[in-house]
Amino acid sequence: METEHTERAHRAIHTATVDNTDPRAPRRNIAKDIVSSSRRLRQRVAVSVGLCIGLLALVIVFE
């Protein structure tokens, strides 16, 4: 069985969303800013908890 490919006019592919923003405008990376700020906050909390545990251990040892 030979199948023949018929030449049909293909419609142009349209994307679901088209970016109509001005390429010169500053981009707003709100999600990236939130993720980076939460990452920094977690690092600060981890450092402060580590310092507190270390100081508590020193107090217990020297008593």
Kindly describe this structure:
This protein is mainly alpha-helical and 63 residues long. It is built from 1 helix and no strands. It is elongated and about 90 Å long. The mean pLDDT is 80.
Relevant terms:
single chain, 63 residues, 1 helix, 52% helix, elongated
Mean pLDDT over all positions: 80
Rough outline: elongated
List segments where confidence is low: pLDDT < 50 over at least 5 consecutive residues.
none
Q: Which structural category do the helix and sheet elements fall into? A: mainly alpha
Q: What is the oligomeric state here?
A: single chain
The tally of strands reads 0
CA(first)-CA(last) distance:
92 Å
What's the main sheet like? none
Provide the succession of SSEs.
H
Cα radius of gyration in angstroms? 29 Å
* Annotation field: number of helices: 1
